[in-house]
Specification:
Shape: globular
Radius of gyration: 17 Å
Number of helices: 3
Number of strands: 15
Length: 233
């Protein structure tokens, strides 16, 4: 997954939040069609038994600055599925203690190719759920400013092996899309530490029908061809 999300304020994205007990009157959704890695992103967490929609930096590893925290030099907007059970890895403890959900309408992928010794974009695609929304499985970490006591969140989205239906769009990986059932409650529960039960979730799966559009550039979002549909599994 290449690090961009489409977060709209439509009824389907809202419904994911509401169904999980989030009060959107207290923390409204921040609509942004082009959320970039290392930028601000909203996550659903369970803190002291309460479901909250909180702002985070889309970068799990943060480092302190005089003003607060900034993304670490180590790339961490995604956490690979095969690192979740590696003790000492960035996502090991978070997978067991601070999982989160990132509600979104869709996501974007960029496929790269080598041109000589340089890796350059080959094509860009945007995908969005049809008559639905996506609940991405994520991880988060809290960072506390020792001077002010203010807490900053860093987060990542778990990535899985490439999905067969998406391989022509992005051959490297696919995001963890959670089933929208009781799984979401278990995922958010920090008391649930038997992560072996999450193993089936770490197989690539498309949970919603996706409308796919090849675009010229993420910042411009101009269609290059007719959209098509990838059906859910």
């Amino acid at each position: 997954m290449c690090g961009r999300l489409n977060v709209t304020d439509d009824e389907f994205v809202q419904q994911i939040c509401i169904s999980l007990g989030v009060d959107l009157s207290l923390s409204p959704l921040m609509a942004n069609r082009f959320v970039k890695a290392a930028g601000p992103l909203q996550v659903i967490r369970q803190v002291n038994g309460e479901r909250r929609l909180q702002q985070a930096s889309w970068w799990l590893l943060l480092e302190p600055t005089e003003q607060g925290f900034k993304p670490s030099k180590y790339t961490s907007f995604n956490t690979r599925y095969d690192k979740l059970n590696v003790s000492g890895s960035a996502g090991y403890q978070a997978f067991r203690q601070s999982r989160c959900i990132i509600p979104a309408k869709g996501f974007g992928e960029t496929e790269f190719e080598l041109q000589g010794a340089t890796k350059k974009p080959k094509h860009y695609h945007d995908m969005q759920a049809i008559d639905g929304a996506l609940a991405f499985g994520g991880l988060c970490r809290e960072y506390i400013n020792r001077h002010t006591g203010e807490t900053t969140l860093g987060c990542s989205i778990i990535t899985l092996p490439p999905h067969a239906k998406l391989r022509a769009i992005h051959s490297k990986s696919s995001p963890l899309m959670l089933p929208q059932d009781s799984t979401l409650d278990t995922w958010l529960d920090p008391r649930f530490t038997n992560v072996e039960q999450f193993a089936p979730l770490l197989e690539p799966a498309i949970r919603q029908d996706l409308q796919v559009t090849q675009i010229n550039k993420p910042s411009l979002y101009q269609a290059m061809s007719e959209s098509f549909v990838i059906t859910k599994d």
